[in-house]
Write a structure and sequence with these properties.
binds adenosine-5'-triphosphate, single chain, 15 strands, Rossmann fold, 6-stranded mixed sheet, binds magnesium ion, 14 helices
Length: 380
């Protein structure tokens, strides 16, 4: 016998969205459909939740794992669907909880056509408590949820937390500047959690994008695709930039590189109809991340630059990267563009200086040539 029949999926914050609610739920359902491909799930709408039904236990177990990554879900729980009778509901509960469990019962009806109301569900459990294997206690931590609907009662247990936030795509699209480091993958997850559909841009130190595509980058992207689905990534070579900036003082290189990255991202945002750029910068973490340098390098860039990690300490970011699952890949040795940088970069450049250096190095033309050598890949 199957352990469960279904999973109930609740979407917390979507409730707040008033008139847009329908669109948000539609987006979440679309994302669920993509994420649960191969699980054999069918979707049933409820008033305040989505019910996923499964043919096989294996499909359901896979879905239970995948749902934990999908933005827009506040919590989810495995469930049994029973007939709308009290004995059937109680017998379903007996499959979810057993000896040693102490359980609190939460019952509600969205379908009012039953002969019993939600209070009577709870009192029936109490009345029969002697014959139950589990104990009932109003203040218990474990919960048994009974939801009576017109197509049967959904009896669920073992709430699992979702990551919350908004469904990917409901806030528009952004280009994420993805390095081989620890921070930017974490920033990408936070961007997706706020409903951004993300396209990645990675500037690499290889001779061609094939080598970049065979590096550890796809491994990072694979982890990120648990959150956002199929990942599209642009690999841009750094050698043209590096050759063009050989003659400038080393201490300026980092900020100029940052500006070049933003400009590149701006161009790709145009192609991809994205209206934001996301980076893993935090404030004061490294020399290039001072307010002065960030202001100078972002001067004139049209898309909003979002920096989800701005207020986090490095240790906090490391903790998040570990939870997300990118940390171990990020710390692996990698030929990063930035590692060529200098020990004492300027910490307070102004936009005039950055603009002048940008012009002197003819970086506009270099940008055009770099774009020609940039390749896009879509990862399954
Ligand atoms: P990270 O751990 O994400 O590499 P970091 O602490 O090393 O961040 P920087 O190297 O100053 O900080 O980079 C700041 C941000 O700039 C990164 O988080 C990323 O968004 C972007 N960035 C840096 N290098 C690259 C690159 N090679 N390609 C694309 N984006 C990059
Ligand atoms: Mg870095």
């Amino acid at each position: 016998m199957k352990r469960y029949d279904a999973i109930v999926v609740h979407y917390g914050e979507l409730w707040l969205k008033g008139r847009n609610r329908g669109a948000f739920i539609g987006r979440l359902k679309g994302n669920l459909k993509d994420a649960l491909e191969g699980c054999g799930a069918t979707m049933v709408d409820g008033r305040d939740r989505i019910l996923l039904k499964f043919k096989s236990q294996r499909g359901l177990d896979t879905a239970l794992y995948r749902l934990g990554f999908i933005p827009g879900i506040s919590w989810f729980a495995p469930a049994i669907i029973s007939n709308n009778t009290l004995p059937a509901i109680i017998s379903a509960a007996g499959r979810l909880y057993g000896k040693g469990d102490v359980v609190r019962i939460e019952a509600k009806r969205s379908y009012k056509g039953t002969s019993f109301n939600s209070y009577e569900i709870v009192s029936e459990f109490i009345k029969r408590s002697k014959s139950l294997k589990f104990k009932i206690d109003r203040s218990a931590e474990k919960e048994l949820m009974v939801s009576v609907t017109s197509s049967g009662s959904v009896v669920s247990a073992g709430k699992m937390p979702g990551i919350g936030g908004l469904p990917v795509g409901s806030s528009g699209r952004a280009v994420v500047l993805l390095s081989g480091g620890i921070d930017s993958p974490v920033a990408a997850v936070y961007a997706m959690k706020r409903g951004l559909d993300v396209i990645y841009l990675h500037m690499h130190a290889f001779n061609n994008s094939k080598d970049a595509a065979a590096s550890k980058m796809p491994e990072i992207l694979k982890v990120l695709s648990r959150y956002g689905g199929k990942a599209k990534v642009y690999y841009a070579p750094a050698y043209l930039f590096q050759a063009a900036t050989l003659k400038i003082p080393r201490k300026y290189e980092l900020v100029l590189f940052r500006r070049f990255l933003y400009r590149l991202a701006e161009e790709i945002a145009g192609t991809e109809r994205a209206s934001a750029i996301v980076t893993g910068e935090s404030l004061g973490q490294v020399a290039s991340q001072t307010i002065g340098n960030m202001t100078a390098s972002q001067h004139g860039i049209k898309p909003i630059i979002i920096r989800p990690l701005i207020g986090f300490d490095k240790l906090e970011i490391i903790g998040m990267a570990k939870r997300i699952g990118t940390y171990d890949i990020s710390i692996r040795e990698y030929k990063d563009v930035c590692s060529i940088g200098v020990k004492n970069p300027s910490t307070n450049m102004n936009e005039r200086l950055v603009g002048r250096l940008y012009e002197n190095c003819k970086l506009d033309a270099v940008l055009g040539r770099t774009l020609k050598k940039t390749r896009a890949y879509v990862l399954p």
